[in-house]
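Exercise 7.
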Amino acid sequence: MKGRNFPNFSAYLISVGNYESQGLPNLPEYDKNAKAVEEALVRELGVDREAITTVGTDGVVTRQDVGMMLINLLYGDCENLIIYFSGYGAKDGLLLSDGKRKVTELIEKLSMYPISKLWILCDTYREGSEAIDFYGVDKGEIEELAVISTPAYTEDVKAEGDCSIYTEIICKGLSSLRNGAETINHIEDAMSLEVNCWNIVNSAKSVNAHRLEFQKFTLKK
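Solution. The predicted structure, written as tokens, is:
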């Protein structure tokens, strides 16, 4: 029963692959990350594919592209919104191809829109926890605000599939809807379980195995 608990969701996928102007290695899995999340949204939440927008072109996502996303949302009809980000995190924001956008800035702008639920799912390489810090932000009329992110440098961690390990875990969290999950908290719990299982399996392989973590912040009225 696709989307039975999550009606009227729209999604914007910000998957950055080109960081040449930032002097950072490009992230070639950007396209596979975005496609994996799109398929999970359609399959698990029942989001209409027409309601899913990929921001940017060929891995290049600029501040102007994100600005256009905000304009489109202002004049659109979006009740519940998911924003997915894949790319480098920075100490004061999410790193795009030509600069940064703060999570607090996005939330404050979107708080003025008629949005009930806002979920921001971040697969942030490096500095993830500081990139998503939004304590004290005014969420306005948003009834449920949830931000989930990786807290640490993760480039050396590979998934079994084509996308990054954290994007794979986000998709598995969304797939928990098959088992009756009804809220963002259930999705967060499913992701936490996936992280714990991954750590157990990999610690058995090597005492020096990288440990996965993720952070979640949920605010409700």
